[in-house]
Design a protein that fits this description.
The complex is a heterodimer of chains A (506) and B (988).
Chain A: H1 2-17, E1 29-31, H2 39-49, H3 51-55, H4 60-65, E2 75-76, H5 85-91, H6 99-119, H7 125-146, E3 148-151, E4 163-166, H8 167-181, H9 195-213, H10 222-237, E5 265-269, H11 282-285, H12 304-307, E6 318-319, H13 325-328, E7 332-335, E8 337-338, E9 356-357, E10 364-365, E11 376-378, E12 394-398, H14 399-412, H15 416-427, H16 442-452, H17 459-465, H18 490-493
Parallel strand pairs in A: 2-10
Antiparallel strand pairs in A: 3-4, 5-12, 6-7, 7-11, 8-9
Helix pairs in contact in A: 2-6, 2-7, 6-7, 7-8, 7-9, 8-9, 9-10, 9-14, 10-14, 14-15, 14-16
Chain B: H1 3-11, H2 13-19, E1 28-36, E2 47-50, E3 56-58, E4 64-69, E5 75-79, E6 86-89, E7 97-99, E8 109-112, E9 115-118, E10 126-130, E11 153-157, E12 166-170, E13 183-186, E14 189-190, E15 221-227, H3 230-233, E16 244-249, E17 255-270, H4 279-288, H5 302-306, E18 310-323, E19 326-338, E20 345-359, E21 365-379, H6 393-399, H7 425-431, E22 432-450, E23 455-474, E24 488-510, E25 515-538, E26 560-566, E27 570-583, E28 587-598, E29 607-618, H8 623-626, E30 631-645, E31 656-659, E32 665-667, E33 678-691, E34 696-708, E35 710-715, E36 725-730, E37 733-749, E38 753-769, E39 775-779, E40 789-793, E41 801-805, E42 807-810, E43 817-819, E44 826-828, E45 836-846, E46 849-859, E47 862-865, H9 866-871, E48 906-908, E49 911-926, E50 930-946, E51 969-970, E52 977-987
Parallel strand pairs in B: 1-7, 13-16, 47-51
Antiparallel strand pairs in B: 1-4, 2-3, 2-5, 5-6, 8-9, 10-15, 11-12, 13-14, 15-16, 17-18, 17-52, 18-19, 19-20, 20-21, 21-22, 22-23, 23-24, 24-25, 25-26, 25-27, 27-28, 28-29, 29-30, 30-33, 31-32, 33-34, 34-37, 35-36, 37-38, 38-45, 39-40, 40-41, 41-44, 42-43, 45-46, 46-49, 47-48, 49-50, 50-52
Helix pairs in contact in B: 6-7
Classes of the chains: A mainly alpha (506), B mainly beta (988).
Chain lengths: 506, 988
Amino acid sequence: MKLVKIIVVFIFGTLLFACTKLDEKLRASLEVASSSVTAAGLLQSAYESMNVPFIDQSRFWAAQVHTTDEGIGPTRGPDWDDNGVWRVLHAHTWNADHGFLRDTYRELLQVQFAATSVLDKSPTPQQAAEARFIRALSIFAVLDGWNQVPYRADLTDLTKLPETLKGTAAADFIISELNAILTNLPDGPSIKANKDAARVLLMKTLLNKGVYANRQSPTFAAADMAQVVTLADQIINSGKYSFTANFFDTFAPDNYSNASKDNELIFALEATNGVRGCCNLNHWYCTLHYNQKPSGWNGFTTLSDFYDKYEATDKRRDDAYPGVTNVSGLRVGLLVGQQFDQNGVALKDRKGNNLSFTRAVKLKETGNDLEITGIRVIKYPPDYAKEFPSENEYVIFRYADVLLMKAEALLRSGNAAGALAIVNTVRTHPSRGVAALTSLSLDQLLDERGREFAWEGWRRNDLIRFGKFLNAWQEKAASGPERLLFAIPNEQLSVNPNLEQNPGYN
Amino acid sequence: MTLKRLFAVMALPVLVLFFSQAAYAQDKTVTGKVTDSKDGSGVPGVSVTAKGSRTGTQTGADGSFRITVASSVNTLVFSAIGFTTQEVSITGSEVNVSLVAATSGLSEVVVVGYGTARKKDLTGSVASVKAKDFNQGVFTAPDQLIQGKVAGVQIISNTGAPGGASTIRIRGISSIRSGNQPLFVVDGVPLSGGSAAPGLGTSIGDAPGDNPLNFINPNDIASIDVQKDASATAIYGSRGANGVIIITTKRGQTGAPKVEFSTSVGVNNLLRRLDVLTGDEYRKALQDYSQTGGNFGTSVDALDAVLRTSYNQNYNMAITGGNDNGRYRISTGYLNQEGIVKESGFKKYSASLTSSFKFLESKRLGVDFNVLTTHTATESAPISNNAGFQGSLIGAALQYNPTASLNWTTAQPINPALGATTINPLALLAAYDDIGNLTTVLASIAPSFKITNDLTYRMLYSVNYKRGERRAEIRNWINYQGVEGRGVAAISNNRSVDQQVTHTLNYIKAISSSFRLDALVGYEYLKYDFKGSGVRGTRFVDYPGIKYTDYLQNVPAADREIFSFADPLAELQSYFARATVNFRDKINFTVTVRRDGSSKFGVNNRYGTFPSAAASWNINDEEFLKNSRFINTLKLRVSWGRTGNQEFPTGASKRVVSIGQGVNQSTVNYPNPDVKWETNTLTNAGLDFAILDSRITGSLDYYTRKTTDALFQRNVTAPGPSDGRYWTNLPGSINNSGFEIALNGAIIRGRDLNWNMGVNLSFQKNELKDFVGTYETGTLNGQGSSGATVQRLASGYPLNVYYLRKFEGLDKATGQSIYTDDGNTLFYFGSPNPKTVVGFTTDLTYKKWSLVVNMNGAYGHYLYNETNMNVVPIGNLGTRNISKSLLGGGVKEALSNPIAPSSRFLEKGDYIKLANATISYRLGDVAKTFKGAVVSLTGQNLFVLTDFTGFDPEVNVDKNVNGVPSLGIEYIPYPRARTIQLSLTFSL
């Protein structure tokens, strides 16, 4: 009996004090200190981190398109109210709590974080250069929209507050970064950071440098413009780029995989089934009517004044696209009037009315035709084969932008003739098919950029640089200078005392 | 061969051998029967002991017993949970005893953490509900058994789907982010709280969760004890913050093997519906609105078409037996509950064994051994929490144009004239298939050894194994965006293994005639291991009659996905102690402390200490009350203590890099090495009383509950990792306070007629204080609601306060909604947290007849009717159906009036529900073979009184935002069923 007692007490005693060390065992993930965490792995995720903030229809794209004369998200009775998030973008009445702008700001900064992470893991010079390009692009996007860029050079202690890069200093930082990495970047491909992509970003930054110094009345330094021209010439003279046969080839499902369609691509976000992809398909869903193919969300449209900037023969405005129009009847470009299926049968809306898109559109639709108002825009021909996820690479930089930026730099340096010649090479190419201009003003150049880059996410940037962003246009009154910047999201203001609210939003 | 022997031979050879009756050479044998004074029925499981010796037995299923005692013994002691203990002199060879129920009496024994206590000695606030007081009817999970039974406990069955999860709140909500469900402990085994049922993996949104307690057969439960205050919960330390519910399963009873049967069959149909227009009303509305299209000439009721009258069957059998050396109970159960939505239902197969043995001559070594095994099969209808604008099945049915035929073919699942985005609910039902299987084993072994007469050592080892599989698919011919032309199917598997080792030393000693000490020390280690995997494919070739999930491999390689995961291992290590000192049976002091370490906590805060102290005073034992005729019992309780909540994921304290496709690696987490449990500080003051010859008994409790160090996922200071948020303990607090009343009255006590009534009320208040910033939750889904939320967390308001546009009516001229400040300003509205939760129960017995009625309700809160707002708005007119509530008002609403979240859809949630009512008749013994037979007829959810216009005011569809839970939002839920069933119980 005693023996049993002793045994029991012994067992209890030993078990009681045989404590476990409560280490966290992560299992399916790694700790950052692990040697398995590599620069290559982090770089891959840095590329992917760009997908949502740049591609999704409610992020950076919305910030650049809905706030301008080329895009509107009308409330269609029971649809698209969304607590007014779309209306305030077009009407310039957003505030510091705007959900999509808040998410865009945070996600763009996540791109910066993901890119900087690569630098801590002994990258090769090329990996480091690629990461720094991605970071520079993220900083550019945040600078452009909000002017204040929280920046972490050191990721060892995340509880430390990031410093803030602002205005010209941020632009200078981007320029110095890009110049530093240029030699280490590869020549291609266009779905990776490459020398020409860095050159285009340099051009963008230099062209907008005066804007970032003073958005209300920017000035454009001759030296910056000269540098834009130099960089453009390096790209043009490389001979690598040309126009595609069809304007929309650059945006087609096989825009990267088909060697005859990738001629214009300089930097694009990869979309390969099973490898990488995101939400390109949102760019046709957001505009197509429910009864079109593919069945869309019946949302965003452009405005008739913008539509009227195009000439009737402009293929950028309207074209058939093989693999799309013959499949579903859907045309590409700007869709107005009656829509048909592939057999030429007129489509109806859900109430049985003709599906005929009207020129007129209002921020708040109240009529019986609220399903069919507004001119729709198909920039990316739908991928019928692989709709989920689609394989259209999302275009960030393309050749035409290099040409038109060069033209702008020349024009701003007083060389209107040189600028006109370049603009006409774009206009008269059979893929665009419009007559040459005889003269070129800044306003005409802005219109040309509008036609060329409609719904590609550059309109806000262009309108601000050309001094037109605060003007009144359809469904929008003239706005105050505070609208040249978005409000710093309250979400970040409350956790980062190094940020201050942009003027006019307090 | 009798049935009894058949079972003995088939199921119990080992046990029967083990328990074969030993012969005892003792002097006299007493037989008799123990009955319930209330209705004269036999009371099983009553402990019968010879006073002054260790000899004892238990009554059998019909209440009869047989005991052989030494001739010197002249008193027998009868004790049972729920009854007042009685001592009876042996006057012959037969002793019949009528026990008096002690539902709220202080002699009752209640289950507390790591032990039991006499209610008289209890210092904490513990409510015990015994099997005979459970709600009647068919329940898939045990939480429903005590709905409305305990003051301060609100139980919301989230949906009407069989097997669906419940929202259980003990004394309100105290946590913003870290979970508010109480800790469930089954026979000493704390459950991890999660379900191993995999998620859906298809594209129709997130399915409502299933109930993690489904694996317990309600028929196996002896009692459910709710631990409410810190004196009772602090022994569970960092998991005790939301209260603890201890489930004790039935034990075997001494005697020859007995077989108990219960069976029921029932019929279910719809309780309540949200009204949409009929075909004729729709045609009239089209006319009123001068709509030319939209009338397809016929009249259908699409909701009726997807619903059905369904049946349920429930069979339970238990075999119990044993002797002084050991007791056992084996039970099996089968439940088949068809859903009232077609092609949905829940089946449960359960088998359990509970046993306890005593070894050695001295009987000092004991072993308890329990195994509980359950398999559930759930067939789900396409009803999700967040289906997009095409809605889920109920949404599709509500929206369906009531003038259009419901005919469909796979070639044309929807009449194109109805619009490509309209879903025919019958086609959706046919296109969808979703079967979930979940196997659960909860096994424990607990040896104990009585080291001295005062000191007992016990060890408990348990393993809780859960394996879930889900096979779901949507056929490619349905016109559902993302599915049409492709089809989608997914097979997912989850596996969860929880293990526990507990050591306790218990010392009980009467130190002097005035002092009694009950002390407990223990050590516990828990490990939670969760893994899963799955495959998914799209782009199927459709072969009618063959499930996609049976040929997933045939989809194109690029359209297949596989995944697997292993959650970080969670480990918990704890030391705990409790001491109760009793002074002259009048005054009790209880002190508990638990020290918890968790692998989740940051390195700087790996261990937390959770103390409590409490006292109680049995005032009625004092001289000045001892002889009171009015007051029979009067007891004062006060307690204070701290508990914790640690429901956050492992890995929050580290900078975690997740590994993705190919070489992809990304930092996902912003590390916080300081992250720790959130702390609840609770105080409680209570009064238990019995007056008027104990005909009226009750308890009053006042409590405060303050949560500090609230766990929250706070926004990272950008730039940060992809998660965008990190776990931290917030400044500020969540303050709950409340007052609870539980009253029971014996209105009539007679030989033939008994009538009892009970009511419990709790009044509660909830406020978030000193909170920095605001966070939104309660996300809406559907057209026009992207990114819209209706609730928020804000300092100075209750948790989940509504934050909305203020609706001021419809503009007479335009028919458009008018909002204060044109909708640009949002306002705080009411709270979804009820101010008052009420439960009511009454039982009436007349001879062999009895009637039991249970009701529950909640008052003073608001529900958000998202179904009305999003699924059947006015803009549907002309294509789809609209809510009946939209018509007939003074102002004609414009068809173009946008869907927008506003106070317009906020409705009072007040309700009282007749949860169940049972009429039963005691047949008694039938033809010698069938003993204690009872036939009963039960109605569940018979009616609900409410002004809420949705399906059921008892609703909580999960609409969380980034894990911040929502509360009280209705969005096309699975409708609630009304059930009528007939049941029969008897034993052999």
